[in-house]
Amino acid sequence: MTAKARSIVVTGCSSGIGRDAAFALRRRDWRVFATCRSASDCRELETEGFESLVIDYEDENSIEAATGTILERTGGTIDALFNNGAYAVPGAVEDLPRDAMRAIFEANVFGYLDLTNRLLPAMRRQGHGRIVNCSSVLGFTALPFRGAYVSTKFALEGLTDTLRMELRGTPIRVVLIEPGPITTEIRRNSRSHFEKWIKWEDSALRDKYESRFIPALYDDSPSRDPGELPPSFVTAKLIHALESPNPRPRYLVTTPTYICAAIKRLLPTRASDRILGR
To answer: SS3 of 87, please?
Structure first.
């Protein structure tokens, strides 16, 4: 496929990783369908010259409508998909309501599956394609008070690995990107979900919420996380995943991600729990 002909759907383009990827790929002559959850964010991207449509992973109708429009505009082809949008519901596992877990799985897992499965037939027909799913260091490493997000990313990794195996022998490549701390709005955006779902005042872990977790969640100071990098570092790995003739199955981003991978690989479970659970 020629550079001029390449087309990609990128989700979560209102800010952070998705927005950076959309602009960088357009500079590399990709035709970018930059999608967002809200119509107002899409209108803003349209003023920037993008073809922008609403895709809300929790809304099947938005996925169906957007993919139909995209495939109509491209004549039924699509070269790549970057599943990126996601959110967190911070809080201890014992404080997570069932409905909160239903909602976050709709956004972080089921929506990825739905969008992928609606575009995959076009990739099969045309005989090529790239599917890149944005996971996280929390897709293979658990951390306290992040159980909802961790569980969705673990599920996404299993789903992605299975799809990669099932597409082995085809010209469709399936890739995971696993960022660590990246400068995005996910911490700020997660606060409303925490306030909606987590009754921390009644929790057996109230002392931990008050002493450590809540101050960290509402901390807006710069460089909050050791090793935090801008979204462009994720975009660099995405470009390799999309344009390399032989992309890697996984791309780790940030030093903390590499450290966590080494801890999980080299240490027994009890030892890694002691290090990562602090």
So the answer is: coil
Q: Which two tokens stand for residue 148?
A: 């909802």
Given the residues 112, 149, 209, 251, select the one marked as catalytic.
149
Angle at 9 between CA 6 and CA 13, to 5 degrees: 125
pLDDT at position 225 = 75
Catalytic annotation on 258?
no
The radius of gyration of the chain's CA atoms, rounded to the nearest angstrom, is: 19
In degrees to the nearest 10, what's the CA dihedral of 170, 172, 178, 179? 160
Phi/psi of residue 138, nearest 5 degrees: -80, 5
Phi, psi of 101 (to 5 degrees): -70, -40
Residue whose pair of structure tokens reads 């490549």 in the numeric block: 173
CA distances for 247 relative to 150, 205, 239, angstroms: 25, 44, 10
pLDDT tens per residue, range 227-276: 899 999 999 999 999 999 999 999 999 999 999 999 999 999 999 999 99
